[in-house]
């Protein structure tokens, strides 16, 4: 049963991949994005992949009046909320921007949903809410905490959503905790396009492979892990997108006001394993050096994806080789990311 779904942050990395799968599942999609961290060029690419005209509302979700007007004019039945800032380091430098944007956009959205009787919401949370000392594999019932303003915005928004659900028990809210999203659409025409020097591993390796960066610095090889480098649960963005479609379907059937699901593969891959998988995708070795640990990093983070499997019937299927092949296709076809116009 198709719904009219508002995708806030739908021009971004994960949002754009999710839009494709929502359309394929028969939903009617509206995109809201202020292009703070994305480029309008992505919309044309989405239209050429899907063969559909996309309706885009280009404004800041914090603009409560415009958000109200949008809900007045469109029969929105469900919302997926990707909109927010996401760079950990930047959040330490500019905490107020992070709190204002991530919380402010959520408040404006929740108000408009309440006034218009919209009761289905899927929210982008993160495994970062498990904090520093969580045992692996991580289960959804672990306590939450954070070590930086970005992480706190996720912890806080999760709490806001639980409180709203108590006051509005007809709400059906999915909190999706993503592990490490990587990869790109198989067409190679959409993918992750970070601005400036990437902080995350795969985008960094991609730029080493195209020659924009000299070599990978591996942050620490003295962790208590099989090869000494840290373990993460890398998940293909296509699997992640499918998880949103499954969560939306589940919200129409569940009696629970708030559901929290990990979206991960359940496997921990090391930094060196990812580097070597990427080298296989590119067909040559890539330069790297081992340096000290990055402040704030943990040795291992990977999901127990059992709840999502049982309740959503969803499971990640792509391997780390698939992730690297698809990232490389995107990066090699678009060495400078999306064009500006
Ligand atoms: P992204 O930056 O590519 O996409 C976010 C989109 O939201 C961008 O297009 C941006 O322009 C838009 N946006 C930001 N603030 C806005 C506002 N106030 N009004 C309207 N639009 C706004 O990020 P992404 O990687 O696609 O992540 C999507 C969501 O998933 C974010 O909430 C992020 O915190 C969360 N998340 C991402 C990761 C990851 O590693 N990519 C991991 C865990 C959680
Ligand atoms: C980052 C975020 C986290 C977010 C997660 C989701 C930070 C500090 N944390 O964590 O909040 O939820 O992404 O995607 O940014 N590495 C290198 N060299 C590099 C880059 C990374 O060795 O140049 C290593 C890191 O030390 C880590 C692994 O690669 O062990 C993955 O790093 P990254 O992609 O930044 O993800 P997370 O550390 O999981």
Kindly estimate the percentage of residues that lie in beta strands according to DSSP: 15-25%
Characterize the biggest β-sheet: 7 strands, parallel
Estimate percent helicity.
25-40%
Query: Assembly type of the shown chains?
Result: single chain
> With helices defined by DSSP (H or I, 4 residues minimum), what is the helix count?
11
Q: CATH topology of the domain at 4-183 and 234-265, what is it called?
A: Rossmann fold
- Radius of gyration of CA atoms, rounded to a whole number: 19 Å
Strand order of the largest sheet: 3-2-1-4-5-6-11
> CATH architecture of the domain at 4-183 and 234-265, please?
3-Layer(aba) Sandwich
Query: Class of the domain at 4-183 and 234-265 in CATH?
Result: Alpha Beta
Molecular shape: globular
Within CATH, the superfamily of the domain at 4-183 and 234-265 carries the name NAD(P)-binding Rossmann-like Domain
Distance between the termini: 36 Å
- Unreliable spans: none
- Spell the H/E element sequence: EHEHEHEHHEHEEHEEEHEEHEEHH
Which ligands occur here? nicotinamide-adenine-dinucleotide, uridine-diphosphate-N-acetylglucosamine
How does the helix and strand content classify structurally?
alpha/beta
Report on the architecture of this protein:
There is one protein chain. The protein has 341 residues and is α/β, with parallel strands linked by helices. It has a domain at 4-183 and 234-265: Rossmann fold. Helix content is 40%, strand content 17%. It has eleven helices and 14 strands. The protein has a seven-stranded parallel beta sheet with strand order 3-2-1-4-5-6-11, with helices on both faces. A three-stranded mixed beta sheet has the order 12-9-14. Strands 7-10 form a two-stranded parallel sheet. The longest helix has 21 residues, at 95-115. Bound molecules: nicotinamide-adenine-dinucleotide and uridine-diphosphate-N-acetylglucosamine. Uridine-diphosphate-N-acetylglucosamine binds at residues 88, 126-128, 151, 180, 199-201, 204, 216-219, 230, 232, 271, 294, 296-297, 301.
């Amino acid at each position: 049963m198709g719904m009219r779904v508002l995708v806030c942050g739908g021009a971004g990395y994960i949002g754009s991949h999710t839009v494709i799968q929502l359309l394929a599942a028969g939903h009617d999609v509206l995109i809201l994005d202020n292009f703070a961290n994305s480029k309008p060029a992505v919309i044309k690419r989405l239209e050429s992949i899907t063969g559909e005209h996309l309706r885009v509302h280009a404004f800041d979700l914090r603009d409560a009046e415009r958000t109200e007007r949008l809900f007045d004019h469109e029969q929105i039945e469900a919302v997926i909320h990707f909109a927010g800032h996401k760079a950990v380091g930047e959040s330490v430098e500019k905490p107020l921007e992070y709190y204002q944007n991530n919380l402010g956009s959520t408040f404006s959205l929740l108000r408009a949903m309440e006034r218009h009787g919209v009761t289905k919401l899927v929210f982008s949370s993160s495994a970062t809410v498990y904090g520093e000392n969580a045992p692996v594999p991580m289960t959804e019932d672990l306590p939450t905490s954070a070590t930086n303003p970005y992480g706190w915005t996720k912890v806080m928004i999760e709490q806001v959503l639980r409180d709203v659900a108590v006051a509005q028990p007809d709400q059906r809210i999915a909190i999706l905790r993503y592990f490490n999203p990587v990869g790109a659409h198989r067409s190679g025409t959409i993918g992750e396009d970070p601005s400036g020097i990437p902080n995350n591993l795969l985008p960094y390796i991609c730029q080493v492979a195209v020659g924009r960066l000299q070599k990978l610095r591996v942050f620490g090889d003295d962790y208590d892990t099989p090869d000494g480098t840290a373990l993460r649960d890398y998940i293909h963005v296509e699997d992640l997108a499918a998880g949103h479609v499954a969560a939306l379907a589940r919200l129409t059937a569940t009696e629970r006001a708030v559901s929290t699901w990990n979206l991960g593969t359940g496997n921990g891959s090391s930094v060196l394993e990812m580097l070597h998988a990427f080298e296989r995708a590119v067909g040559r070795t890539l330069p790297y050096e081992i340096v000290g640990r990055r402040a704030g990093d943990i040795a291992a983070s990977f999901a127990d994806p059992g709840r999502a499997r049982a309740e959503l019937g969803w499971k990640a299927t792509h391997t780390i080789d698939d992730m690297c092949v698809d990232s490389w296709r995107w990066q090699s076809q678009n060495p400078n990311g999306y064009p500006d116009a």
